[in-house]
């Protein structure tokens, strides 16, 4: 029931699981989810179906065109919810060093520590809504 919800990444690129933990698939922010989906399906439909990455990308491409980087947005927010301490730290750093205040309204930044898996992300999303 929330009308204005955005999702961002804070890293230098989008990293998705690859064939090994030290071999992620790396894409630039702004790369369409549809492109990522097709690329990974072509690389190994079986692997990326089994690990849930294709399902996640399919869901994401129905919501928005491409992933966006937090540091490149300039929207005002009432609440910012992060799901990992390093992301929380990056958001706070961005507020402290890169943003020019347009208003002096408070922004609540909340971290809910959630393991970066599809199952945990689903329960983390439910927790955030509650």
Descriptive account of the structure:
This protein has helices spanning 33-50, 53-63, 85-97, 118-129, and strands spanning 14-20, 23-27, 79-82, 108-111. The chain is α+β, with helices and mostly antiparallel strands and 130 residues long. It folds into two domains: 14-63, no CATH class; 76-128, no CATH class. Strands 1-2 form a two-stranded antiparallel sheet. It has a two-stranded parallel sheet with strand order 3-4. Helix 3 (85-97) links the parallel strand 3 (79-82) and strand 4 (108-111). Helix 1 packs antiparallel against helix 2. It starts with 13 loop residues before the first strand and ends with a helix.
- What is the tally of helical segments? 4
Regarding quaternary structure, what we see is: single chain
Radius of gyration: 16 Å
* Unreliable residue runs: none
Summarize model confidence as the mean pLDDT.
90
- The proportion of strand residues reads 15-25%
- End-to-end separation in angstroms reads 12 Å
Taking strands numbered 1, 2, ... along the chain, how are they ordered across the largest sheet? 1-2
- Domain tally: 2
Q: Mind summarizing the main beta sheet? A: 2 strands, antiparallel
Helical residue percent band: 40-55%
Assign an overall shape. globular
Succession of helices and strands: EEHHEHEH
What class, by secondary structure content? alpha+beta
* Number of DSSP E strands: 4
EC number: 3.1.3.16
Function: Protein phosphatase that catalyzes the dephosphorylation of the C-terminal domain of RNA polymerase II. Plays a role in RNA processing and termination.
Subcellular location: Nucleus
Pfam family, one: Ssu72
